[in-house]
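Project outcomes to date are best conveyed with an example. Our students and postdoctoral researchers have been running inverse folding experiments weekly, and each run begins with a structure described purely in tokens. The record below, which covers 404 residues, was selected by the lab manager from last quarter's runs and is presented without edits.
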């Protein structure tokens, strides 16, 4: 909607739209097969996904939202992908559990905060020398970036959190006070106190009514409520290896001795660095867990760096509901003019979890190979990915994303 204001495009909001009802109707699912909002209905067809809609609106008329040069265009797309993957994704992992939308997990919240701090540091450094992300005026990159920052600035980025990122705060306040932004979001007030974890209030029990003289006929018993199906991975035999302990070990291992601490203790077990309660990681359990290599099936199509990074970021976003049972390192390589994707994953159980296969369509885009961890060459390749070395399989390793 903000992009529409800048481009002078009129967009009519759907009337009487009820989330959870309207988006499940057949006519809506024809436009958005997943039932997600927003959706833009045009005379030529429908578009779903907010960034895709923003790109479409920005291109309807040429008023500078995509810059003036090819370099501007590339830089705008770069910052859109950065803000979507590095800011929006972890921010949702922080805020939505606090709002009661997703299950709350303290370790995941801490990981999301750390990821956001790194991303905001990058953004802050860029904005020290630039008023806006690209060129000297607001572009689509700024619109999407500010919209990604919006919930954080409103709900959890209090003054103490914002202090190291003064340039980001200046930039955000400048943008939201532009007439086009204010026409959509209204007046904005920065977060003063972060929202707290929302606990569902218990329903009050109705007071018992006094018995009437005449007995009322007995009502038929209500059908029993359906129990939420258990994840089949929770039914597996217990394992001495705790996934969360490994993730803490990986996150806290010192960078200058990472292979010796993180990788060696992954196989053999050992203390979790910086643990206040002397937490011990039991080591890899090949009976309770399995390791898998993945290789993208269509690497010959990976010719544009930022688009490849976007593919990986989108894949990891769609893996979010399964984080409890998974750990992965996705590596983006560079060979001539191609950017192959390869990775290693740790799954609970001996197969790729059935819920992952059923719910994450990106799985089908990769070839999966179960790992024999007793093979020394295989172990070295796993450790190279864990350590994010400069070369993987002798090919330049240019970027890496860790799912933990």
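After processing, the design step wrote out the following sequence:
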């Amino acid at each position: 909607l903000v992009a529409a204001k800048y481009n002078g495009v009129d967009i009519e909001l759907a009337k009487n739209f009820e989330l959870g009802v309207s988006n499940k109707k057949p006519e809506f699912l024809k436009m958005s097969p997943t039932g997600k909002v927003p959706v833009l209905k045009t005379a030529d067809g429908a578009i779903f996904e907010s960034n895709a809609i923003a790109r479409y609106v920005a291109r309807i008329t040429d008023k500078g939202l995509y810059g003036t040069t090819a370099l501007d265009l590339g830089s705008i797309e770069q910052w859109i992908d950065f803000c979507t993957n590095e800011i929006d994704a972890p921010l949702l992992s922080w805020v939505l559990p606090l709002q009661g939308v997703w299950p709350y997990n303290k370790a995941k919240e801490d990981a999301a905060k750390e990821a956001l701090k790194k991303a905001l540091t990058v953004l802050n450094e860029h904005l020290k020398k630039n008023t806006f992300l690209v060129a000297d005026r607001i572009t689509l990159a700024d619109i999407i970036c500010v919209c990604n920052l919006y919930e954080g600035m409103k709900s959890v980025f209090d003054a103490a959190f914002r202090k190291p990122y003064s340039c980001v705060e200046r930039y955000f306040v400048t943008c939201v006070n532009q007439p086009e932004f204010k026409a959509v979001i209204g007046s904005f007030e920065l977060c003063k106190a972060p929202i707290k974890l929302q606990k569902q209030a218990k329903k009050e029990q109705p007071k018992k009514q006094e018995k009437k003289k005449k007995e009322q006929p007995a009502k038929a018993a209500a059908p029993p409520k359906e129990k939420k199906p258990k994840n089949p991975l929770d039914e597996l035999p217990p394992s001495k290896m705790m996934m969360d302990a490994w993730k803490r070990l990986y996150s806290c291992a010192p960078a200058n001795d990472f292979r010796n601490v993180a990788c060696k203790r992954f196989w053999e077990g050992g203390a979790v660095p910086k643990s206040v309660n002397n937490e011990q990681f039991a080591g890899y359990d090949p009976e309770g867990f399995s390791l898998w290599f993945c290789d993208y099936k269509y690497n010959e199509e990976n010719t544009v760096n930022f688009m490849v990074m976007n593919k990986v970021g989108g894949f990891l976003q769609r893996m979010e509901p399964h984080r409890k049972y998974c750990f992965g390192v996705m590596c983006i390589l560079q060979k001539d003019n191609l950017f192959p994707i390869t990775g290693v994953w740790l799954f609970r159980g001996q197969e790729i979890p059935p819920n992952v296969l059923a719910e994450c369509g990106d799985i089908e885009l990769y070839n999966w190979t179960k790992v024999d961890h007793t093979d020394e060459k295989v172990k070295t390749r796993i450790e190279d990915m864990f350590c994010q070395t400069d070369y993987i399989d002798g090919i330049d390793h240019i970027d890496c994303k860790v799912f933990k």
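The longest strand covers residues 326-334. The mean pLDDT is 87. The training component of this project remains on track.
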